[in-house]
Task: inverse folding
């Protein structure tokens, strides 16, 4: 298992703990569809997943994966940026997942950005149910990723502890800027 897989696996464990069968979840960055598939399996046939991406290729890859796995009926693919997620939901959700950066195998110049991710994260936290969780896998190893990671960490550090519990996971024995994961749990009402 490589380091990226271990961060994603860690995030999946924390999200699985709060998403029930029949639940509602968001993949804010569909990419290749792996998190969307994970969420679709968690919510089961009676649940609902919204998967966002601005790249048609990402949505097409995700759709193919969901069809191959027989779970496409539980997922609504949204051709919009994650900063618009609240406009497409009709109530609270159990979880919101972000896997930031660029589409694996895609154009590396098309990447999530600090400004839109900060907006999306604020909106995601507003639509989380009490006890729900948001997760972010951040990639500070490229210039925009470093800026985005710093913005996410600043936003998380400023969240009031009576409303949110935030933990961060980092690989500390690796050179460079390895990926990191952040889990946010909504523990109180809105501000």
Result:
């Amino acid at each position: 298992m490589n380091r990226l897989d271990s961060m994603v696996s860690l995030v999946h464990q924390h999200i699985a703990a709060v998403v029930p069968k029949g639940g509602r979840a968001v993949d804010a960055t569909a990419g290749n569809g792996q998190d969307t598939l994970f969420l679709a399996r968690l919510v089961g046939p009676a649940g609902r997943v919204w998967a966002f991406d601005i790249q048609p290729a990402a949505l097409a890859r995700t759709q193919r994966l969901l069809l191959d796995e027989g779970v496409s009926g539980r997922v609504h693919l949204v051709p919009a940026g994650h900063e618009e997620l609240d406009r497409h939901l009709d109530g609270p959700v159990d979880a919101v997942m972000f896997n930031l950066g660029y589409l694996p195998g895609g154009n590396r110049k098309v990447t999530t950005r600090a400004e839109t991710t900060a907006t999306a994260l604020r909106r995601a936290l507003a639509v989380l149910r009490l006890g729900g969780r948001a997760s972010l896998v951040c990639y500070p190893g490229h210039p925009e990723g470093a800026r985005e990671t710093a913005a996410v960490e600043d936003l998380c550090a400023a969240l009031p502890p009576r409303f949110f519990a935030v933990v961060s996971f980092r690989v500390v024995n690796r050179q460079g800027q390895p990926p990191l994961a952040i889990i946010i749990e909504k523990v109180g009402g809105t501000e």
